[in-house]
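Narrative of accomplishments. A recurring question from our advisory board has been how the design workflow behaves on a single, concrete structure rather than in aggregate. To address it, we present the structure tokens for one chain from the evaluation set, followed by the sequence designed for it. No filtering or post-editing was applied between the two.
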């Protein structure tokens, strides 16, 4: 039961019938209510604010519509898989969330932690905590992997990370991911194998500590053992960064044995045609995507 201090003060004031005390008590009442209002505002739950909310998103590139009326809500700590055959717009969705300027949003909005991010450039979105592990990580000759990482961390935190701290973090990440130590000194992704590139993306996650991670076909280019190592690192990360949400884009169900999604969305012909729980993965493995078309749009969320 909430103690009604205001009523108590009021009666005390009347009982004492002393002007100075009465004024003092009235003032206390005012501060009591002020404190109450401030606490309610502070303690209010995040309510319906989602980590990521995509509303009626339509995207075009070179005059061609690639995504049509996409709606997606991802809460804190949730894992969502986005599946579908080749060429349906999965990578496009990830690039639009990250802010790739080649894609034109012709309708809709993308909210991150309740704020529209459509007008923000990639680096601002990254600073807010969004990370995209790309399907085809870019090679940048002449920029060493370690310079790239150290600059990225320093920019995110708005202060240069000390060399000792950086080396310690890097070494621990490289060991966890069973990476070749030399990769940190080479030009970013230049000459890296497919698997090395993907592990390097996960090293960036471990160092940059994002709160929304998008994995675009992380499984492509990874052998079975490397896939297990990489997924273990991501699971360890989300277990120690509880509010982090994950979007896994894939067309192969295998990665979802290691990173278990709460929801699976199937994209086909520019639209999300089905949203279901993880039980749908067995059906996809057995029967493929052919029955999931935009004529069968069906959602369980
Ligand atoms: N920058 C681009 N320029 C032209 N077409 C593009 C571009 N990006 C994507 N597309 C086209 O959009 C469609 C969806 O591509 P994508 O999102 O990469 O598919 P998915 O990742 O599902 O395999 C494809 O037909 C692809 O050719
Ligand atoms: Mg793709």
């Amino acid at each position: 039961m909430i103690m009604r201090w205001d009523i108590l003060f009021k009666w005390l004031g009347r009982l004492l019938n002393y002007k100075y005390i009465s004024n003092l008590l009235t003032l206390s009442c005012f501060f009591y209510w002020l404190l109450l209002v401030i606490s309610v505002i502070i303690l209010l739950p995040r309510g319906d604010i989602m980590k990521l909310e995509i509303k009626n998103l339509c995207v075009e590139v070179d005059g061609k519509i690639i995504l049509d009326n996409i709606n997606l809500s991802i809460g804190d700590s949730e894992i969502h898989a986005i599946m579908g055959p080749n060429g349906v717009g999965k990578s496009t969705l990830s690039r639009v969330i990250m802010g790739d300027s080649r894609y034109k949003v012709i309708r809709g909005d993308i909210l991150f932690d309740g704020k529209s991010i459509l007008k923000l450039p990639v680096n601002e979105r990254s600073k807010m905590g969004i990370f995209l592990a790309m399907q085809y990580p870019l090679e940048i000759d002449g920029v060493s992997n370690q310079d790239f990482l150290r600059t990225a961390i320093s920019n995110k935190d708005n202060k240069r990370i000390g060399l000792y701290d950086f080396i310690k973090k890097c070494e621990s990440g490289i060991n966890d991911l069973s990476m070749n130590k030399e990769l940190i000194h080479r030009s970013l992704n230049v000459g890296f194998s497919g698997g090395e590139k993907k592990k390097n993306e996960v090293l960036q996650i471990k160092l940059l500590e994002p709160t929304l991670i998008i994995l675009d076909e992380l499984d492509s280019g990874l052998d079975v053992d490397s896939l297990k190592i990489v997924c273990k690192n991501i699971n360890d990360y989300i277990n120690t960064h509880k509010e982090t949400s994950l979007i896994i884009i894939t067309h192969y169900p295998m990665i979802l044995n290691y990173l278990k999604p709460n929801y699976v969305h199937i994209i086909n012909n520019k639209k999300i045609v089905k949203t279901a729980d993880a039980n749908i993965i067995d059906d996809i493995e057995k029967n493929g995507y052919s029955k999931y078309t935009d004529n069968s749009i069906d959602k369980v969320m």
